[in-house]
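Section 5.1 Outputs to date
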Amino acid sequence: MARSNDLYDLPLTTSRGAGHAYNEGVAALLKVQSGGLETVAASIAMDPTFALGHAALALLGHEYCA
């Protein structure tokens, strides 16, 4: 499986596609733009074993009461 890095150049334990979606979602959230939550959720749909994606979605669910 090809790997990708996060926005801080740390390795992600997921596929390139899921990593790309995760990075786009986190970037949108950090810029307070719409679509971040859905894009992070899409990263989990691409790789259901992506732990960091699940952790981010859980945190966002708590923050946004989603």
